[in-house]
Amino acid sequence: MPRALRALLANSPYLGILGGLLLVPHLVSNLYVLQVMTFVGLYVVLALSLNLLNGYLGLLSIGHAAFYGIGAYASAKLVMEAGVPFPLAMLGAGAVSSLFGYLIAKPTLRLSGIYMTLATLGFNMVLFLVLQNWMSFTNGPLGIMNIPGPVILGWSVDSRVDYYHLMLVLVILTILSMHRIMDSRFGRALVAIRENELAAEATGVYTTRYKVQTFVLSTFYAGVAGSFYAHFVKFISPDSFYINESFVLLAMLALGGQGNLVGPVVGAASLVVIPEVFRFLQEYRMFVYGGILVVMMLFRRQGILGGRDYSLRLPWFQEAGRVVYLRGDKFLPEEQVTSAQD
Amino acid sequence: MVFEQLVNGLTQGAVYALLALGFTMIFGTLRMVTFAHGEVYMIGAYVGFEVIRLLSPNFFLAVAVALAATALLGIVIEILAFHFLRDAPHATSLLVTIGVSILLVNAAQLVWGPETQSLPHRLLDRMDYGEMELGGVYITYFQVLVMAVTVALMLALYFLINKTRLGMVIRATAQDYEAAYAMGVNVNMVFMMAFAIGSMLGGVAGVLVGVYYNLFYPTMGGLYGLKAFSAAVVGGLTSLPGAVVSGLIIGIVETFTVELGTSSLRHMVSFLFMILILIFRPGGLFRGKELIRVRGD
Questions:
Q1: Any chain A CB within 8 A of the CB of B250?
Q2: Which of A31, A204, A265, A297 is a Cys-bridge partner for A160, taking CB atoms 3.0 to 4.6 Å apart?
Q3: Residue B28 · residue B237 · CB < 8 Å
Q4: B274: nearest CA in chain A?
């Protein structure tokens, strides 16, 4: 079997899921369902962004909504006042978020993790108060209204189906990029830091720099998600970025699990969908979140799907168990280098 | 005018100091940050409210009942967030306390409703302690009472930690709980005691603030708790005098920012203070002067 076909077959479960998601707008005519699914996507991106820090690196950020909020406001401001096209504004929102992330992470990450946790909390509160009180810039508690919908290279996103597709693209990009990151030297360094910081440092991992870089990366994703939110809901106000929102993200990770790419997706999806399905729960939504945090931490700390990696690749289309060595690996017998070349 | 603001600031600061003492007590002994402290304070305030409303308009009775209730609540939180999770990473306990705080706010909303409640005036009038004039400034006796209660509690805490056997045990556990355990200290009991004492300080603060402003609402603990928490961080998280001093400083600075016409900045003072301290002097303002001496980590 040719290599490409084999790779295709091995990954067919992923392609199946992707195909299913692409078919959803054709099968479901209910726009409300599409909207809920778009929100699922939004929270998937946010939960994955927080997962980089809380799950892979083992640093607890409890003010992640701040960076989400910065992204939303930055994007709205860039599009509405500077006239920046939407794709650039989205990247700009990520960049502004990660700039703030850098400013928070750089000084506090030299200290032990708990101080960074406290700083993220303080930053979330300060940001909320700034958004609420800086009337001339953020319009205070009234928020920014009538944010234009995204226009990407002439494609104007305005129906629920369009938003669904845009969100799907964002989710796929997020998952793919995070998969690549965690599969790289960088990602392995993060896991090494989480497992044993001292040992990682001793083997030459510059832990502080990796932590700051991860923080910047994570806040970038949050900023992009904020940008999408601003142009999707078309109205942003400080209330959407209060610490409660950060706690919701924490509950998603606590429920789904962290430290892999599947747990946050499951957690985000279930905590968005459950209150929608059980409408009577709406009022007790926060009860559910609080209860999930307590119960999960007491009985299954790593979350439902946490603590290990998951792969849906079909093993019988791959040469199972065979390690593929790279040329130039100095501990490698010569004949294995050649056998890996086919 | 300045003096009057100073008195207001001190009253406010005294309450922050009480709450910050609770945080410090808990972190100093258990090495655990609690986010449910603001909610303990809120429950304390509501308990005081109910006592005054239903039993008798007696401030000290309200304080006593609130003390008992919040001590119990503190023990429950300790069992949930710390007792079973002692060997778990820091983050786990922290997340449990966040969960507990969400649950408590929502429980209060169910029991007392989300709206702001006040004590009827006929009850307040019976508790009115009048006011006195001091150098042309009117100070209500209630302000004096707030400060007196705060000072009394601080002294009591100082005495408890430094002069009693229980205090010695708490200090020993704070230093090294395994060593203390090996020496025959019932560390489970000590952790519970420390958490209960910290929560009681929060509960008293709740009654004081609740009656002082006569406003009771389920989210009253949120901002207050976080501000007091930043006061505790500014004070170094393990230093009891540090918590008191930084609580007072934050109270006074806050009051004066209102005076300067920037009332919207008021709530930010403590958080900015905290972030600056974390960046430039993470050991707290009074590093090395801990009342509860603990290993640095």
A1: no
A2: A31
A3: yes
A4: A122
Dihedral of alpha carbons B91, B92, B97, B102, sign: positive
Q: How many CB atoms lie within 10 A of CB B173?
A: 26
Residue B145 CB contacts under 8 Å (≥ 6 apart), including other chains: B59, B129
pTM to 2 decimal places: 0.86
Q: How many CB pairs under 8 A join A and B?
A: 105
User: Does B278 contact A118 at a Cβ distance shorter than 8 Å?
Assistant: yes
Residue for token pair 């996507």: A41
Q: What is the DSSP string of A144-194?
A: B--PPPPEETTEE--SHHHHHHHHHHHHHHHHHHHHHHHTSHHHHHHHHHH
| Beta-strand pair B131-134/B137-140 | antiparallel
pLDDT for the residue numbered B288 = 54
CA nearest to A244, candidates A64, A43, A54: A64
Distance separating the N- and C-terminal Cα atoms of chain B: 45
Q: Which residue of A lies nearest to B27 if distances are taken between CA atoms? A: A114
CB contact, 8 Å: A91 with chain B? no
A42's tokens: 């939004």
Alpha helices in A196-317 (DSSP H): 197-202, 207-233, 243-256, 262-277, 285-299
Question: Which chain B residues are within 8 Å of A195, Cβ to Cβ?
Answer: none
How far A197 CA sits from the closest chain B CA (Å)?
A: 14
Q: Determine the pLDDT at residue A57.
A: 86
ipTM of the predicted structure? 0.81
- Count Cβ atoms below 10 Å from residue B49 Cβ, excluding itself: 23
Q: Given its phi and psi angles, is residue B34 left (phi above 0), alpha (psi -120 to 50 degrees) or beta?
A: beta
